[in-house]
């Protein structure tokens, strides 16, 4: 099991390690390959394997108005990294003080203060330090002075296109959660707390869990999806609606899920929604009967998609 350590000034050294460094904002296929290679290198060199990452996307501190939607909450990011099996995950709180560090200061005060590096593994376009002045060349020069090698990973490709967080965000934004899952090697997920909604679902005998989610979460395009609601580790099939329902234009709920064959009170619980397949666009219905019939059809289709064996 990976040991998660929070960096702080004066941190006790964690030992010799091959270290993967990055934001790892989606822990996608490319990130997974980089971390796995770090673990392999560590074994070859007889050292610990480590991941150095941040508690938030640096853009949320440096340029919050233009920060990209987040593919993972911190807890999920750490869990996804831990599943890959590094010995240590060093989580570095990213704040204004850290953002102002020069590349050399970051390497001295964070990297060398925390580890005795034997290797550093980064993406080929890795940037760090104040105003992103540090790059792979700076890291290589620092490594040459301090006795560790630097490995710069090229991007991996799927369907002849690079796997990047930007590509995944675009797929999510377009509602192509199937492509997003291929690039992530798992379903795209959004976390939230169940809150009281409008009540129409209950009155229509199709109760839904209405989620309040982080305003920077990467929400799929408006529409209806098949997926799962994860409640304390239990994955429950669900039909999921994203966006303001056209039939109820005064609504404010953006993400709501009907948990198939589920009974129980979910209010104030934190749950995770996993998106498996897009079913249809949102549309306005002329009558309540037509709306209910469509909802029932969505639920039946979602049930088949989520419960029938796949080839």
Descriptive notes:
32% of the residues lie in helices and 28% in strands. The protein has ten helices and 14 strands. It has helices spanning 29-45, 59-62, 74-84, 96-99, 103-114, 136-146, 165-173, 177-184, 200-203, 288-307, and strands at 3-6, 16-21, 48-54, 88-92, 116-123, 149-153, 157-158, 161-162, 188-195, 209-213, 223-231, 234-242, 255-259, 270-280. Strands 1-4-3-2-5-6 form a six-stranded parallel beta sheet, sandwiched between helices. It has a six-stranded antiparallel β-barrel with strand order 9-10-13-12-11-14. Strand 7 and strand 8 (161-162) form a beta hairpin. It starts with a strand and ends with a helix. The mean pLDDT is 93.
Secondary-structure element pattern, one letter each: EEHEHHEHHEHEEEHHEHEEEEEH
Beta strands, count: 14
Low-confidence stretches: none
How many DSSP H or I helices? Answer: 10
Name the shape in a single word. elongated
What is the C-alpha radius of gyration, as a whole number of Å? Answer: 22 Å
Helix content: 25-40%
Q: Largest beta sheet, briefly? A: 6 strands, parallel
Average pLDDT across residues?
A: 93
Question: Strand fraction band?
Answer: 25-35%
Class derived from helix and strand content: alpha/beta
The span between the termini is: 32 Å
Largest sheet, order of strands side by side? 1-4-3-2-5-6
């Amino acid at each position: 099991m990976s040991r998660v350590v929070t960096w702080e000034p004066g941190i006790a050294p964690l030992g010799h390690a091959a270290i993967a460094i990055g934001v790892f904002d989606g822990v996608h296929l490319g990130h997974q390959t980089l971390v796995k290679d770090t673990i392999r290198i560590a074994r070859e060199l007889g050292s610990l394997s480590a991941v150095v990452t941040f508690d938030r996307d640096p853009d949320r501190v440096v340029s919050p108005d233009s920060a990209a939607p987040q593919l993972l909450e911190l807890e999920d990011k750490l869990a996804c990294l831990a599943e890959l099996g590094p010995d240590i995950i060093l989580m570095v709180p990213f704040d204004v003080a850290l953002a102002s560090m020069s590349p050399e200061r970051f390497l001295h005060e964070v990297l060398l203060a925390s580890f005795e590096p034997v290797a550093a593994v980064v993406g080929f376009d890795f940037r760090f330090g104040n105003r992103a002045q540090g790059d792979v060349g700076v890291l290589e020069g620092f490594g040459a002075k301090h006795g560790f090698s630097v490995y710069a990973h090229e991007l991996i490709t799927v369907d002849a296109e690079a796997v990047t967080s930007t590509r995944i965000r675009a797929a999510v934004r377009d509602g192509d959660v199937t492509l997003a899952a291929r690039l992530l090697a798992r379903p795209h997920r959004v976390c939230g707390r169940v809150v009281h909604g409008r009540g129409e679902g209950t009155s229509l005998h199709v109760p839904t869990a209405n989620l309040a989610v982080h305003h920077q979460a990467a929400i799929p395009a408006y529409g209806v999806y098949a997926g799962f609601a994860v409640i304390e580790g239990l994955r429950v099939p669900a039909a999921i609606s994203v966006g303001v329902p056209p039939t109820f234009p005064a609504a404010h709920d953006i993400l709501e899920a009907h948990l198939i064959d589920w009974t129980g009170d979910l209010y104030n619980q934190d749950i995770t929604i996993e998106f498996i397949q897009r079913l249809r666009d949102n549309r306005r219905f002329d009558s309540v009967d037509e709306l209910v019939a469509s909802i029932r059809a969505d639920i039946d289709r979602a049930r088949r998609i989520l419960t029938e064996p796949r080839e």
